[in-house]
Amino acid sequence: MNKKIKILFSGGGSGGPVTPLLAVLETMREQNLGELDFLWLGTSNGPEKEMVERENISFRIISGGKLRRYFTYKNFIDLFFIAKGFFESIFIIKKFKPSLVMSAGAFVSVPVVWAAYFFRIPIIIHQQDARPGLANKLMAPFATAITVTFEKSLRDYGKKAVWVGNPIRQDFTKLKLSKREASQKFGLRTAKPILAVMGGGTGAVAINDLVLQSATELCKFCQIIHITGKDKSGKENFELTEKEIRLSNLKKQMELYRIKTLSMVEAQMKILKIAEYEEE
Predict the structure, then answer these.
(1) Helix (H, G, I), strand (E, B) or coil at 234
(2) What burial class does residue 39 get, using C-beta atoms within 10 Å of its C-beta: 0-12 exposed, 13-18 middle, 19+ buried?
(3) Residue 163: which of 121, 205, 128, 207 has the closest Cα?
(4) Pick from 146, 144, 91, 86: which is nearest to 110 by CA?
(5) Does residue 41 contact residue 60 with C-beta atoms inside 8 Å?
(6) How open is the CA angle 142-145-148, to the nearest 5 degrees?
(7) Is pLDDT larger for residue 257 or for residue 99?
(8) What gap in Å lies between CA 197 and CA 130, rounded to an integer?
């Protein structure tokens, strides 16, 4: 009888730390590795719960805190939540008994990785951005291996680093869609330039307000696809022109592909690609 392979994933707070891990998970399912059992640990207020459960993955909420790079009393409060998250992770890991722990950043993952190291469980961390974030810096000393998107990141992590690029979902790479088909979905005209604006995995209020303020002038020379993020649509009384399209949610891979197929400009780029943009 083949032993069940248990893998613990962690990440959240936004869609960024979630999407590459979902791509890895998808590949694992396709590789006929045997019986797999996945568990995901994340935050209570991020988009990851819905993203993960949509893929039929068990999800657990744990405590977590953020260590800011400037002085604030919140850092002292969040130390308590990080410690709480560590002991919660100890309990979950002891019960779940994973063979591997994987993370792609996010502060919620820090106590999970520390707890996994306590049990000497192999740990893989993925670095998406060109520069290492504080969460990954805190986890790196305890990682077995660190995969990176950019070749230049190899020197940030030394011998543990492996250059693999950024994992992308298979259904996204295989899907073929013409610009005309994508334009028809959004009711756009193919002859006029299209501007797509998005502000990270959960939206950015400042960018949303700027687009709304500039929409009248922008629509004189382009069409707009505006992905605001949930509850971040900005000025509710702003009269939208018929040439602007505002999306508050991007839940389906097809929606992303249609946007990617169109000519676009992406706002607030933390990583220079939109291969896996999904938001709550």
Answers:
(1) coil
(2) buried
(3) 128
(4) 86
(5) yes
(6) 115
(7) 99
(8) 22
Which residue has 């797509």 as its token pair? 196
- Read off the amino acid at residue 5: I
Structure tokens, 60: 């657990």
The predicted pLDDT at position 169 comes to 76
Rounded Cα distance between 121 and 268, Å, is 36
What's the CA gap between 235 and 262, in Å, rounded? Answer: 26
Lookup: tokens for 2: 């083949």
Reported pTM:
0.73
36-42 vs 58-61, strand pairing mode: parallel
Helix 109-118 with 73-96: angle, nearest 10 deg: 50
208 or 99, greater pLDDT:
99
> Encoding tokens for residue 40?
């995901």
Percent of the chain residues past pLDDT 70, beyond the cut: 70
> pLDDT value at position 256?
55
> Which amino acid is residue 232, in one-letter code?
K
Question: Of how many residues is the chain composed?
Answer: 280
Q: Residue 231 corresponds to which tokens in the numbers above?
A: 């509850």
pLDDT tens-digit series, residues 183-242:
776 677 767 777 777 765 555 677 777 877 887 787 778 777 777 766 555 544 344 444
Q: How far apart are CA 106 and CA 90, in angstroms?
A: 18
Give φ, ψ of 76 to 5 degrees.
-70, -40
Q: What is d(CA 61, CA 147) in angstroms, rounded to the nearest whole number?
A: 25
18 vs 112, more confident: 112
- Structure-block tokens of residue 179: 């610009």
